Amino acid sequence: MTTRTTNNTVGEIAEFLRTLDRVAVTTHVGADGDAIGASAALVRLMHRLGAEAVFCHAEAVPDYLSWLLPDETLRELPPEYDLLVADTSRADRTGVPVPDAGARLNVDHHEDNPLYAEYNLVNPRAAATAEIVADLYTELGVPMDRPTAEALYVGIKTDTGGFNFRNISPRAHELVADLLRAGVVPAEVNERINRRGSIEQLRIVGVSLANAVQYGDALISTVENSDYERTGATEVESKESIDQLRTVAGVDVVAHLREVPNGTKGSLRSETVDVGEVARHFGGGGHRLAAGYTTPRRPGEAREELLSVLEGIVDLGGGQ
Ligand code: AMP
Ligand code: MN
Ligand code: MN
Predict the structure, then answer these.
(1) What separation in Å is there between the alpha carbon of 87 and the centre of ligand 3?
(2) Most CB contacts within 10 A, which of 37, 182, 276, 308?
(3) Atom 2, ligand 1: which residue's CA is nearest?
């Protein structure tokens, strides 16, 4: 494998994609709207270029996103297929193991992406990986049909928190206008990806909000196995509370710490503090203002561990 440590241009990647005959697209574990949206659009692009293209991921695609993918998902990388990875900051976070020969393409917008593939198209200024995949359509002169536009729209909408976060640019809004011209009806897309929650999810979100504790400029919520048991909800559903946790005035860093079988998964959000750096303290990573990690500790200890790192970064006040 020839691993490049430099980024490629959109033109170089477009040229490279034209050389491929059989590709499998995957994305990060715990796939979100951009992960699936960008992947679906990339699979469709490769179809349009005349290649055989499939999506593969060891985990089940969340129900609210599965309609974006053109075909059924394979759980493993088929032999003799080139692996293209979307929206994934590190090679150890891919949905299927990367073969010894390496991934052929890494298309992403995480600033800590180490350019782990043979070809890399990483643009941290993009609001979503979907925005970068849209550049490839333009470069290759492939018109966007409605299903492609819907997939890209979901990627941008979800990664920008509904066009609210600091990563949204005029360029992203211009692209969204084009996606609407290509047939996206936002109300219909929203109906398909929102309004899909359950009463169990509503309850775990309530528990998660009730468990929030403020430490000066930081707000930390912990959710434990006993909370899943009494609400009937899952770990992933509890994370739905994170945007509501961000509504507390004067808070600079929000953390959601939820128990998982191997410890605690932490999701960090901020408007001002580099939480990607905080996540890297624990072997995680992500964006500057949205990052995550997994620690082997249980939630209560994970909170103490996090507070000790935040101590030098934000004012934790004197108490709660
Ligand atoms: P989450 O809080 O899980 O929504 O993740 C926020 C951001 O951090 C996403 O861009 C993830 O890709 C990234 N991230 C989450 N967990 C990890 C991890 N364990 N290692 C590296 N990046 C992560
Ligand atoms: Mn993602
Ligand atoms: Mn993304």
Answers:
(1) 5
(2) 37
(3) 267
pLDDT value for 320 = 46
The residue contributing the CA closest to ligand 1 atom 13 is: 286
Question: Which helix (H) or strand (E) is 27 found in, with range?
Answer: strand 22-27
**Ligand 1: lining residues by beta carbon, under 6 Å:** 28, 30, 89, 93, 110, 267, 284-287, 290-294
30 with 62: CB under 8 angstroms? no
Whole-number Å distance between alpha carbons of 78 and 316? 50
Provide the whole-model pTM. 0.93
Q: How far is CA 155 from CA 6, 65, 134, in A?
A: 25, 10, 11
Q: Are strands 253-260 and 218-223 parallel, antiparallel or unpaired?
A: parallel
Question: Is the confidence at residue 14, as pLDDT, over 90?
Answer: yes
223's tokens: 């959710």
**Residue reference for tokens 């969204």:** 176
pLDDT tens for 203-232 read 999 999 999 999 999 999 999 999 999 999
pLDDT reported for residue 318: 74
- Helix/strand/coil (H, E, C) string of 140-203? HCCCCCHHHHHHHHHHHHHHCCCCCCCCCCHHHHHHHHHHHHCCCCHHHHHHHHCCCCCHHHHH
Is the pLDDT at 319 greater than 60, yes or no?
no
Atom of ligand 1 at shortest distance to CA of 284?
20
Q: Rounded distance, CA 242 to CA 248, Å?
A: 11
Distance CA 270, CA 272 (A): 6
